[in-house]
Amino acid sequence: MKEDNLYLEVRKIISGIIEVEEENLLKNTRFVEDLGVDSMLALEILVAIERKYKVKIPEERLVEIRTLKDSVALTQEYVEARQKTD
After folding, report:
1. Using CB atoms within 10 A of its CB, is residue 81 exposed (0-12), middle (13-18) or buried (19+)?
2. Which of 21, 24, 31, 60 fits a disulfide with 37 by CB distance 3.0 to 4.6 angstroms?
3. Cα(79)–Cα(41) distance, rounded to whole angstroms?
4. Using CA atoms, how far apart are residues 86 and 83, in angstroms rounded to an integer?
5. Looking only at Cα atoms, what is the longest distance across the chain?
6. Long-range contacts made by residues 42-50, C-beta under 8 angstroms, separation at least 24?
7. Which DSSP letter does residue 61 get?
8. Which pLDDT value is given to residue 85?
9. Which pLDDT tens digit goes with each residue over 39-77?
């Protein structure tokens, strides 16, 4: 999957969950510090990504999702791993 497409798709998922306009969600916007995302919203983001891309991301990796850039990188890692096994 192209990184640009993945970025746009993940940004759309996250902006819908945290109720922020997509264009206001920048790559390095910090979810907790800048947007007040709590652990429940973070878990909701993780689950939505798992459903969309049919991957399983361990909950302990949730702490790595601090920004949109982090979210895209983590998603890319699991999507690529899934594609190798398909």
Report:
1. exposed
2. 31
3. 22
4. 5
5. 38
6. 44/17, 45/13, 45/14, 45/17, 45/18, 45/71, 48/13, 48/17, 49/10, 49/13, 49/75
7. G
8. 86
9. 999 999 999 999 999 999 999 999 998 999 999 999 999
41 token code pair: 């919203």
Q: What is the pTM of this model?
A: 0.90
**Lookup: tokens for 35:** 């947007």
CATH of the domain at 33: 1.10.1200.10
Domain count, the chain: 1
Q: Which domain holds residue 19?
A: 3-85
Task: Dig out the tokens for 27 from the structure.
Answer: 């790559």
pLDDT at 1: 62
- The SS3 of residue 67 is strand
Q: Provide the 8-state DSSP code for 27.
A: T
